[in-house]
Design brief:
alpha+beta; 3-stranded antiparallel beta sheet
């Protein structure tokens, strides 16, 4: 099985964005970061969605 879009934990996702876990949760609450995939009690974010958050921020910066 080849996983091309790994699922990240909240800590991994926050680390990728270089923010704290509480800040990450605030950005999820305000819609800046997509809500997680729920796998039972687990919350995971596809790496591609976190990378898209970065691309969206870059595009917004360029448009400003």
């Amino acid at each position: 099985m080849n996983i091309t879009d790994p699922l990240l934990t909240v800590r991994e996702s926050a680390s990728l964005l270089q923010v704290s876990v509480p800040t990450f949760h605030r950005r999820v609450a305000d819609g800046t970061i997509p809500k997680p995939l729920k796998l039972g009690a687990l919350s995971r974010w596809p790496q591609s969605e976190i990378l898209q958050v970065i691309e969206n921020a870059k595009a917004a910066r360029a448009a400003a």
